[in-house]
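Homework-ish question, so no full write-ups if that breaks the rules, but can someone show me the predicted structure for this set?
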Amino acid sequence: MTAAEGLLTGLPNVWAQIPFMIGIMLGMAMVVSLVVGYMEHKVMAHQQARLGPMEAGGFHGWAQLVADGIKFVQKEDIIPRNADAKVFSMAPGIALVPALLIFLVIPLGPRVWALDLRSGLFYALAIGSIGAIGLLAGGWASANKFSLIGAIRGVAQLIAYELPLILAAAAVAVQAESLSLVEIVTAQAEFTIQGTTIGIPFIVPQLLGFGIFFTASLAELNRPPFDMPIADSELVFGFLTEYTGIKFAMFLLTEYAGMVAMSALMAVLYLGGWEIWPGLGLPGCEGVGGAMECGLGGTLLGVGVMMGKIMALSFVMVWLRVTYPRLREDQLQKFSWLVLIPLSLLNIAVVAIGKVVF
Amino acid sequence: MPAATGLGLLKGLGVTLKHMLRPAVTQQYPHERPDLAPRTRGVIALMDENCTVCMLCSRECPDWCIYIDSHKEQVPPKNEGGRARTRNVLDRFAIDFALCMYCGICVEVCPFDALFWSPEFEYSTYDIDELLHEKEKLREWMDTVPPPPPLDEGAVQPKEVTDAIDKAEKAREKALAATQAKAAPAEAPAGDGGGAAAAAAAPAPAAAKKEEIHVDDVQIDQETFDKLIAEGQSERMARAKAKAAYVRKEKARIRAEQEAAGGGDAAAESPAAEAPAEAAPEPKQAEVHVEAGEIDQETYDQLIAEGKSERIARSKAKAAYVRKKKAELQGGDDA
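A: Not a homework solution, just the prediction itself:
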């Protein structure tokens, strides 16, 4: 079924593939996530008529997050006396590693992906949910009631918003007839306006689904306006209260890596992945969708387009964070169960009917 | 309702986007100077020559952060036979900015315009003791005091200015009357010789004294002051120069008046010079001049231009005047 082969398949064996995988994960987590983090600093600042970081690194504070990282490493690693030390120390890792593992299946450009799993979408959503265990572990092990409340809120939120997220993604899978992320990109290229080769990105037929997926992913990432597990004004940062230094930094990195991962997922599911417009192909490439044969320039262009889409979606996440105040906990639950889940069921029904009719 | 809610959400996004596209309001402080309001409460400056040690500021200070020490000095009588006066001399004036809460009550309460707000704010230190600014330091802040903001259109002139104008007006009338009075008796008893001379000699010193008084209560020449302020000079400079300008103008005016009444004066003085009996009061009259402490304008201007404080310039100019006058008198005696 898989028509396309990633660059990785050309490598001789699994031991040669592993460094490539780790490279993609770390590159996305350490570089793209920090760029998104820096963008959040600056966008948030300018939307609040401020300047944001201006000193670190010289030019508009570009090195602010690097400096922050160095600061976090230098800080004392405090473990509260009553905390469950082992769980407390493991929690940031449990949260961070799943966020990194998502990048394995995300196609970043024509033939640039680590794995093309046939159940890629399922894998991404499933492994993304594991992070909640790290959150719960951290909150529980802190031996702090605010942390515990935050952690429980986080898990309750995950349960509530995982459903609309999966239902919206399922609608995409129905339309693409595949769970493979690469094939979903191909499907958008092949889902053409009748009589032409111009594809339609899935955001057009599934605008509602995109809205649901976006909202639910914000909630899954504990991003404002759905940051009740952190809620600094009520829970003094919830499950993060007792964390300092590098462990705290790992939780922060998890958030940014999650933003990148979710943006990448949305770009693949709804925006046609690395193609500027699905079906039109990239300059320097032959073929469409997953079957593209690209030179170096075309590959880089494809990756650039994908990064642009990730940045644009991350920007919208920041924009929403700046604009809207935090919801109340009961409003959050109500919004999911009474609005998003019925809408996503409606969405999947409409998409299924459309798939059968057309 | 749901439609309206959705519209509100979009409006909110519009607001944040609009602000992102506008330039930020941040001022990058150490890199660029903040644009402070003219009446910013940065630091309190002291014009110590205006201070009379009345202690009002110190007593009104809610934090008790103003320290004043003074001693009394005897001032010799201005006129012979007068009573010696005592005067407070400021020894120490210090404001502890570690205690000060910048309420500005001291500035408000000062009746002699000795305390001013300056927008200067960069005087933080590593040592809290250094926040105790002594008299000299407070005097230095005076240079950073901005000119007072202009009055509103059609505003009533401040009382100080109207009072000064009234005073000058009255003094001028008085001087005019005196010169006319002097001229009248000189003409009337022209045939009497010595007797008339005695009568004329009496008002002459009085007139001279009047001139003294005019110049003594030094006022500010408003025109010069405004011009200098507009040129960006510090208030202190402008005030000193404006005072100097006032003194110059006043002198020129009186001299012109005397010259206008010159015929009478000459008639009055020529007989006095002839009479040997009148020779004795002549140097005494000169002495009165010297004691009245007129300022040598040339020296004064020069010293002010050199950046000396107004007080020093004035005292040195006085000394220079006395020296000159004495030299003149001696020269006259030799001749």
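Now go work out the reasoning yourself. Hint: Chain A is about 65% helix and 0% strand.
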